[in-house]
Amino acid sequence: MADLLIQINREKGGIAGQIAAELRDAIRGGRLAPGTRLPATRDLAADLQVSRGAVVEAYEQLVAEGFLTSRVGAGTRVAPRTPTAPGAPPASARRDPGSTGVCGGYYGHRPTSPDLAHFPRQGWLAAVRHVLTTVPSDALDYGDPGGVPELREELAGYLCRVRAADVRPENLVVVGGVAQGLSLVLHVLSRECDLSLAVEDPTSINQVPLLRRAGARLVPVPVDEEGLDVRRLAGEAAALVTPAHQFPTGVVLSPSRRAALVEWAHAGGRLVLEDDYDAEFRFDRDPVGCLQGLAPDRVVLSGSVSKALAPGLRLGWVAAPPELAGAIRRARGELDLGSPVVDQYALAHFLRTGGYDRHLRRMRREYRRRRDALAAALSEELPRVRVKGIEAGLHMYLELPDGWTEQEVVRAARELGLSAEPVGPMREFAGPPAVVVGFARLPAHQAAEVVHGLKVRMSGQKIDPGGRLA
Ligand SMILES: Cc1ncc(COP(=O)(O)O)c(C=O)c1O
């Protein structure tokens, strides 16, 4: 068990963040070697004379970032190989001594990432245990490449109930996330035609390589205050949209545009690919059902548990018209024989027993608090920054005031531990300078401090590498 020198400043607040920062530095600097067992939270809290909750929060943050591992019975240890794990700052930020931020935390790799410290470990453990104690051995054989029937049954019920989808289990294919779902759909479609694909502009830059690799020729179409400008669609074979919460602007596709998009698809025998990536998190506006429910024969719906549970689970679904669903399922069988069955049964159990819904309700409340805190701090400290797209999802779209560049804001935000991306590289058409910022991993009580740090950095004042005002 390691004895640790951890120095904290009680007057400064953010005790959990300070403990996490100290441990992170000790691991990076080699003072804590891989495999080292850390003190129990109760002991460390007593040593430092802080609440046990602060130590638990610090450990959980570092587990989420990949610096620590935690197993029942084995305690908390320094991970065998420390990040580059998901959730760790990008390499560019890690080289920067200020990258741990004023609060010592790092709040996510992608602006759309959830807070993995809140992954429902106990519920998931119970689901996996249930699966392993109940499924017959044969269930662990190569399964249906379209997914285990129990999960497709549960997902169909869930999507009809929560997303107003029009789905039956036989229209569903279980996949490894929206990314794989889109790859498979495009892979199938591009074998049949020259696949010109209308994409929203701006769009998720992370998706562009996979769309191209799957055989699509991308045609950017502008997004305005009502979402995709459907009038600018022409003869494309399909359109890829994020109607519930456009990425990155956060705009909701308006009712008239939804109708026009469905009409466009019907008129030309075209397909709409609906990326429903973060639809579970709605805060202030009436629920918006998915587009697929309006036109199940023309819309292919893709979603996943990446925002609701964890991206690392790589579990998602595609709901498609029957013929296309069959082709996707065959392609999955040819390409890699399908998704891991234990996880599929576990998700089915988690859905069936209400664990998924309970987790979502809890996280919706928490993310709403975090969003409110960050939005309030921005409006108080940086009123010239225009905050948009916050009625849903886990990120904000910030339009920048004159004189601020995207790159400078992104650098400053990342130094402060926020996950941020510039919008410029996501566009073909000109638009105002803007950045996307994730709020899911920024605890509400740290929002004011982080925004103050951003203000100070953007006004050119000096900050020492620890993030404190010099
Ligand atoms: C807009 C958008 N679509 C899709 C995805 C990919 O999600 P998945 O993890 O389900 O593949 C992301 C991930 O960040 C995203 O931001």
Task: Describe this structure as you would to a colleague.
It comes from Nonomuraea wenchangensis. The chain has 470 residues and is an alpha/beta fold. It folds into 3 domains: 15-81, Orthogonal Bundle (Arc Repressor Mutant, subunit A), CATH 1.10.10; 93-117 and 363-458, Aspartate Aminotransferase, domain 1, CATH 3.90.1150; 121-356, Type I PLP-dependent aspartate aminotransferase-like (Major domain) (Aspartate Aminotransferase, domain 2, 3-Layer(aba) Sandwich). The protein is built from 14 helices and 14 strands. A hairpin with a 3-residue loop joins strand 1 and strand 2. 50% of the residues are buried. Mean pLDDT is 90; it is low at 84-108 and 462-470. It binds pyridoxal-5'-phosphate (PLP). Residues 110, 112, 177-179, 204, 242, 247, 275, 277, 304, 306, 311, 316 line the site of pyridoxal-5'-phosphate. Pyridoxal-5'-phosphate binds next to helix 7.
Question: What descriptive keywords fit this protein?
Answer:
alpha/beta; Arc Repressor Mutant, subunit A; Aspartate Aminotransferase, domain 1; Aspartate Aminotransferase, domain 2; 3 domains; eight-stranded mixed sheet; four-stranded antiparallel sheet; disordered C terminus; binds pyridoxal-5'-phosphate; DNA-binding; transferase; GntR family transcriptional regulator / MocR family aminotransferase; transcription
The CATH fourth-level homologous superfamily of the largest domain: Type I PLP-dependent aspartate aminotransferase-like (Major domain)
> How big a fraction of the residues is strand?
5-15%
Tell me the helix content: 25-40%
Low-confidence regions: 84-108, 462-470
Order of helices and strands: HHHEEHHHEHEHEEEHEEEHHHEEHEEH
Major sheet description: 8 strands, mixed
Please tell me how large the radius of gyration is: 23 Å
Name of the top-level CATH class of the largest domain:
Alpha Beta
